[in-house]
Each structure stands twice: as structure tokens, then as C-alpha cells.
Write a structure and sequence with these properties.
By secondary structure, this protein is mainly β. It has a single domain, classed as Neuraminidase, CATH 2.120.10.30. It contains one helix and 27 strands. The strands form seven sheets. Strands 1-24-23-22-21 form a five-stranded mixed sheet, with no helix packed on it. A four-stranded antiparallel sheet has the order 2-27-26-25, with no helix packed on it. A four-stranded antiparallel sheet has the order 3-4-5-6, with no helix packed on it. β7 and β8 form a beta hairpin. The longest helix is centred in the first third of the chain and has 6 residues.
Amino acid sequence: MWPPPPTELPVRLHAALPDALRRPVRSAWADANRGGAAIHSFLEGPCLDAAGRLHVVDIPHGRVLRVEDWATVAEYGGWPNGMALAPDGAFVIADYRRGLLRLDPATGTPVPVLETVLSESFKGLNDVIVHPDGSILFTDQGQTGLHDPSGRVWRLHPDGRLDRLIANGPSPNGLALNRDATALYVAMTRSCEVWRFVLRRDAVVGKANLFHRIPAGTSGPDGMAVDAADRLWIANPGHGLVWGVDPHGIALFRLDCTPWGRMPTNCCLSADGRTLMITESDSGSILAAMLP
């Protein structure tokens, strides 16, 4: 028996990038990733700061923006993609061009954390999360895909030890932890899958399995978030949707973002955990959906 169709949840506009902050110019990042279009922005990496205020990154223009008042918290020569809050209130940024960075919102100056591995450059970092034990998990996606399944998932421990958890990913992108932080979800964009495996104290990964498969299309799963009910929310650019999946991998909910665009790139929970905040990068918008 196949499960019943997912329930539709309403989506609303929360905020839109002001015209004054839109920069419709070509960039090296857009040439490689958006067909050379002169895009105004590409919002990603939604993250709450220590005060519960929503922040996002703008990849091609190297910006970190606070959504509350659309203040530019940082602007630098990089391509920030994923962002997570560290226990001390700083942001950890997965920067496609510069590696793993740390940003103090008060100063707006990014500081390198890890730029290379044994002098070898990363393929291109994408997303990052912080484990309750203080370790940092991040994806090294680059231009990998079904033609080159060599994307990597790394774990940097507080003592500086670095684990390579996955080295055969067909475009590892978004990351999320289950509620007790024992299992890691990894969005494999080009194979339209979400993988799941148990996190051990050592670097051994066993029984990594396909947790959920989204419909095939022009782009697979991107950023993800887990709510208080241990449901996984998966941004799906290409289809313009966000999927809500139960802890067993069954799709329960479907959020349609296409009235604004087909590029919901990532999501996070609001401070009270009741609202899903979604970056829709076609329109430069932040969308919101109340969770049941």
C-alpha cells in the first residue's frame, strides 16, 4: 500500500528583499550556477541569531542580511551558502569560495575556521549545522552529481579533529539532525534523495540508507529543518515545493511556493518552533507556513 497524498499547508509572504538591496548584475557564481543571468540576489542559509532574529545569506553578493530590518550584517569577498548559530552566539558559515568561516554579528568580519584539508581545497562548501556536542557538520558539494558522486560530508570536532563521514555523495547539500541528534539527514540534490545515517563518536558510518526520495525533476532536495515533532522539512527547488516528512520517511505535508517562484532553497524554524521560514530565491522572498 502506498501512503495517502500529502496534506497541503498554506504559505504566506513574510518579507521581501527591498529594491534598494537588489543588485541585478552578473557574477562568477551566477555564470557557473544560474546560466550567466544577472540575478538580483540568491537568498539561502536562514538562521536565527541568539536573540531569535532571522538572518539569511545572499550568495553571489557575499552578504549576510538581518531580515527584521534588512540590515547588512556582513559583506565580504566570498560566497556564503549555509549558516548556523554557534553556542557562543557567533555564526558559522559554509562559504563555497572560502571554506568554513566564523562571523561575529557585532563586527561583521568573517574569520577562517577551516579553509583546506591537508592543503587541498574543498570542492565548494554548501550547508552547515552545529551538533549539541559542539562539533560542526558541513557538506562539501562543489559541482558533484550523478556524473561525479564524490561529494563529501565533514565533521569538525571542538578539539580540531576532522572526520570525513561521506565521500561518495551525488551532490550533498542540506543537513539536519533528528531531535536527539543521533542521526544525520543529508540532502543529495542530483539524485533527488535524502540519506540518513547514525552519528557515532568515531568517524565510522554504517548502514547509510535512503530515507526519502522526492519526485525527480530539474533540481532535488536542498536545505532542511527538523521540528519539535521530529518531522523533516525539505526544500525542493525545481518543483517549487517544501515537503514535510515524518520520522519514518513518509511525506505528510506539501507546501506550494510557486506563487512566488520555483526556488525554495532552504528553511528553518521560527523562535517558538511553530512556523517554518523559507528562503525563496527566485523572488528574493522569505515565506512562512504555520506547522500543525
